[in-house]
């Protein structure tokens, strides 16, 4: 790596870091004043309140990085090239016979590195702190959530309850309704004081462990399938109901899957227990996640020719034109996503068509680069 490469890469990293800190600082100030009443309700004095605020926003900074990282990746690249032109550093390099495309290489290296950090954050960090990210400001760890009833379509079991305990991953006042013909010969409700979500393991299927339940298992009119899915628990007085409807499917169903790793999402999409709408939404999200790093690089390459144009009149006009083009790109990409959400376009086409479209546009516009 040459001196100019290290120089540009260092400037790119500096711009990205400063931009991210500035945006997160703005978010922190606005959000902490919005939720200041919730934080002040925490007992324990000023020290405890400050500690809870720092913990709360330390988790949010990871989620914020995942949300804003792709945009900052592009903005940092555009700013690096704009500063190169503003300070007159581009012309001596061009006079030495080095093309502008060669100068873009360290910017692309920086963009690829940021993409890698975004992927690591999404796959390794976010799933581990999903519980903390889904708690509201000022909530204690044992906070509860309202239940969104769900149906396991592969077993015909409806699941509901009074409230969810986030810390214990349990359903209080649980109610499991066995729909007739598949798991029971007649419609059979099972109530329990508490049902704890059991994660799947090497020798353990996913399901719920019920305590203080009724009616007794012997009194349930179970079919052959029901006998396999509903079994006595490991301890006396417990009942295990095997189902792939997990804890996070019972609250914030339209957004909770965003905190899962890609492998978990793929497993869920292949699961027949979920309804078609949920599977389609998650399938679209998976394709968007897989193509997002590539789309970030494509957006960056689309913006480069408009920052360093041959027919440049002023840097300010170049930046304005670049912002307008990127705004059009964002609108078109969102239009494809909405078409997929309304079942007018398949998830695969919705995420790949923009890459094909803007990739071709980036190749065409590269002829306008000042070199």
Helix and strand topology:
Layout: H1 3-34, H2 36-40, H3 46-86, H4 90-95, H5 100-125, H6 130-133, E1 144-145, E2 150-152, E3 157-160, E4 163-165, E5 170-178, E6 188-198, E7 207-214, H7 224-229, E8 230-232, E9 238-242, H8 262-269, H9 276-307, H10 315-341, H11 347-365
Antiparallel strand pairs: 1-4, 2-3, 3-5, 4-5, 5-6, 6-7, 7-9, 8-9
Can you give a write-up of this model?
This protein is α+β, with helices and mostly antiparallel strands. The protein folds into three domains: 1-140, no CATH class; 147-250, no CATH class; 255-371, no CATH class. Helices cover 56% and strands 13% of the residues. The protein is built from eleven helices and nine strands. Strands 1, 2, 3, 4, 5, 6, 7, 8 and 9 form a nine-stranded antiparallel β-sheet that branches. The longest helix has 41 residues, at 46-86. The chain is elongated and about 90 Å long. The mean pLDDT is 86.
Regions with little confidence, pLDDT below 50 for 5+ residues: none
**Nearest-integer average pLDDT:** 86
Strand content: 5-15%
| Protein structure class | alpha+beta
**SSE arrangement, N to C:** HHHHHHEEEEEEEHEEHHHH
Domain module tally: 3
Largest beta-sheet details: 9 strands, antiparallel
Distance between the termini: 21 Å
Compact description:
This protein has helices at residues 3-34, 36-40, 46-86, 90-95, 100-125, 130-133, 224-229, 262-269, 276-307, 315-341, 347-365; strands at residues 144-145, 150-152, 157-160, 163-165, 170-178, 188-198, 207-214, 230-232, 238-242. It is α+β, with helices and mostly antiparallel strands.
